[in-house]
Design brief:
The complex is a heterodimer of chains A (340) and B (269). By secondary structure, chain A is α/β, with parallel strands linked by helices. Chain A folds into 2 domains: 174 residues, Rossmann fold, CATH 3.40.50; 144 residues, Rossmann fold, CATH 3.40.50. In chain A, 26% of the residues lie in helices and 27% in strands. In chain A, strands 5-9-4-1-2-3-10 form a 7-stranded parallel sheet, with helices on both faces. Chain A has a 5-stranded parallel sheet with strand order 13-12-14-15-16. The N and C termini of chain A lie far apart (61 Å). With 269 residues, chain B is of the alpha/beta class. Chain B has one domain: HUPs (Rossmann fold, 3-Layer(aba) Sandwich). Helix content of chain B is 29%, strand content 30%. Chain B has 6 helices and 15 strands. In chain B, helix 2 runs antiparallel to helix 5 and helix 3 crosses helix 4. Chain B starts with 5 loop residues before the first strand and ends with a helix. The chains are: A alpha/beta (340), B alpha/beta (269). At the A-B interface, helix 3, helix 4, strand 5, strand 7 and strand 8 of A face helix 3, helix 4, strand 9, strand 10 and strand 11 of B.
Chain lengths: 340, 269
């Protein structure tokens, strides 16, 4: 019989499990049932208070690692915590959210346990045995894989399933697992983020705005209008509470001494060498190109594009609607309508 | 005391991102159609790691950069013709299969063995660099396992910046959710850094650097050990291209006002 362990961790507040963790719990509940496996939930929680409320009376053994050392997302402590939880649960299958915190450590933990890891899992299914779907070549090739060897660790992409919701029953008893820590050589001193009004990456936004290099090219009057482009883009992000993505060609311009949009960094880059964010809607503007860029919005549900090129490879066959128009003019009017 | 680093950069060879990829299944498992014929490049994020390594080594006299790669010798040689002109390094080559469908654990074993065998490598001064994910397998797993195999348990992923202090400690910026960076200070080497984009532009080609590098590249390729990668129980149920093709409604010759109204209405839905 398989022994399924779902590893979870708390969010920055330290008071609640992350949404991605609860999605992994939901996957654990579903597939423990489908596989006839026993279910355990492992929690990395410095204060030791988050799991009880959110897991409620879940039909699973709940194990926790607690202590001030685990308040920081740090490889050495997180790896030790996850290793201890996996050993305590004697897990043969391990689900975990593909958060930055767990993506950092889980391959190393799998190695320590003598197991194997698959990452970026977007779907799970029960065939002859458990099967996992993931993408290769930066979201250009999709594959379904399985492993005969155990323990098998699966890092589940956030946003690919609903989160677990407690039934409100009396909380399960939480078993505390002790951890032997190595000498700590790394100290996490904090998080560096743009000021609130300068933050252009918003994972929870309903819409992703994708800016292409066309924003910094010469326009119909023969001039570059970078300042106007910045105003229009930032205006839209603010009015629509949107997240900002960019093509590689646009973010690369800063290194090539070309006109740049000052708020644009490599963090905004989407596509084959950037991120593949998940948002319900996406609006691309002034983008051009083919497959390498298109992978950037592979996980955007509803897609529209504004481009002067009616045959734009970014849009044709990839977007639901292509507006053949000047993005400067359209976005100025969109912004005006949004702030009304 | 001066800070001297021995930087091992793990980097794979991947198909040029502009190429069309078509998966095929052969007797040994899935691969890409005409894989050996596709133009190849050094993996983009690993290339960022290489440039950052060279920059760090240049700033700390006595430091060395090793480029550790696993792939078919002929393909690696082809890519080195370009990469060798960018920054100084010593190539450590392992002859093995190309492609993203191999097992990360086997790849990590081969790379760790190659690094451990580098003559003169001081493991106490080791910085293990690489891309945080490759453009082929894209697992983001290999580097951590290499680190574990080499006994390095201070690891950072999605790194965009390293700043070395006089005492040998260094500050690392790692990408975390929401467009933020986690800031950590590590007491010193050894450490693993899986790089995202970093901050450096691609260096211009330097023929002198190229000539110096190529003197070591050919011997390294000649003595590259051949390795077989174990699947470790991994099998593929299916490998396919995404089929989804959308029916795009093309809206043209419509006033901007009307387009704007339609977009705003769509956003509000």
């Amino acid at each position: 019989m398989e022994k399924l362990l779902v590893l979870t961790h708390v969010d920055e507040s330290g008071a609640a499990l992350t949404r991605a963790s609860l999605e992994a719990v939901a996957a654990g509940v579903e597939f423990a049932g489908a596989l006839g496996a026993t279910l355990s939930i492992g929690v990395v929680d410095a204060q030791g208070a988050a799991s009880a409320q959110q897991l409620g009376s879940i039909n699973a053994r709940v194990l926790a690692v607690t202590g001030v050392e685990f308040a920081q997302a740090r490889y050495s402590t997180d790896a030790a915590a996850c290793e201890a939880l996996v050993r305590a649960a004697e897990a043969t299958l391990v689900f975990a959210p593909a958060s930055s915190r767990f993506a950092r450590v889980m391959p190393g933990v799998a190695h320590r346990i003598g197991g194997f890891v698959e990452t970026h899992i977007t779907a799970l299914a029960k065939g002859e045995t458990l099967e996992a779907t993931r993408w290769f070549y930066r979201q250009r090739v999709e594959a379904v894989v399985r492993r005969e060897t155990r323990p098998w660790f699966l890092l589940l992409e956030a946003g690919t399933r609903s989160a677990f919701i407690t039934n409100g029953g009396a909380p399960r008893e939480v078993e505390t697992v002790s951890v032997t820590l190595p000498a700590l050589r790394t100290n996490v001193s904090g998080v560096r983020a743009p000021k609130q009004d300068e933050q252009t990456i918003r994972p929870d936004a309903k819409i992703l705005f994708v800016a292409g290099a066309g924003w910094t090219k010469k326009q119909a009057d023969g001039q570059v209008h970078a300042a106007e482009a910045e105003t229009l883009i930032l205006g839209f992000l603010k009015a629509a509470d949107a997240s900002l993505g960019s093509s590689k060609s646009l973010v690369d311009q800063s290194g090539e001494n070309q006109t740049v949009l000052k708020f644009m960094t490599h963090m905004n880059q989407i596509g084959q060498t950037g991120a593949t964010p998940r948002h319900p809607k996406g609006l691309s503007t002034c983008c051009h190109g083919e497959e390498p860029h298109v992978v950037g919005w592979r996980f955007i549900n509803e897609r529209r594009a504004i481009s002067l090129d009616p045959n734009c490879g970014w849009a044709r066959g990839k977007a639901d609607v292509l507006y053949v128009a000047d993005a400067f003019k359209v976005m100025a009017k969109v912004n005006a309508l949004l702030v009304k | 005391m001066a800070n001297i680093f021995h930087i091992a950069v793990c980097a794979s060879v991947v198909p040029d991102p502009l190429q069309t990829l078509e998966p095929v299944t052969g007797p040994t498992g899935p691969g890409l159609k005409n894989e050996m014929m596709l133009p190849a490049v050094l993996d983009p994020w690993a290339a960022s790691a290489l440039y950052e390594a060279a920059n760090l080594a240049a700033a700390h006299a006595g430091s060395k950069v090793y480029l550790v790669t696993l792939g078919p010798k002929a393909k690696v040689q082809q890519v080195m013709m370009t990469v060798a002109q960018k920054v100084p390094f010593e190539l450590v080559a392992v002859d093995g299969p190309l492609g993203g469908f191999t097992d990360a654990h086997s790849t990590a074993t081969a790379l760790a063995d190659a690094i451990a065998a580098i003559p003169g490598l001081d493991r106490e001064r080791l910085l293990l660099f690489g891309g945080w994910e490759s453009a082929s397998r894209g697992a983001g797993a290999t580097l951590q396992i290499v680190g574990e195999r080499l006994g390095v348990t201070d690891q950072f992923q999605g790194v965009d910046q390293i700043t070395v202090n006089e005492d040998g400690s260094f500050e690392v910026l790692e990408r975390v959710e929401g467009g933020k960076h986690q800031v950590s200070v590590c007491a010193g080497t050894p450490a693993v850094l899986g790089w995202a984009t970093g901050n450096l532009p691609e260096p211009r080609n330097n023929p002198q650097v190229g000539m110096a590098n190529m003197r070591g590249v050919m011997p390294a390729l000649q003595k590259a050990k051949n390795v077989k990668l174990n699947a470790n129980g991994l099998s593929y149920v299916s490998v396919s291209l995404p089929k989804q093709q959308r029916v795009t409604r093309v809206v043209r010759d419509v006033p901007e006002d009307e387009i704007a109204r339609e977009i705003v209405q769509w956003i509000a839905e």
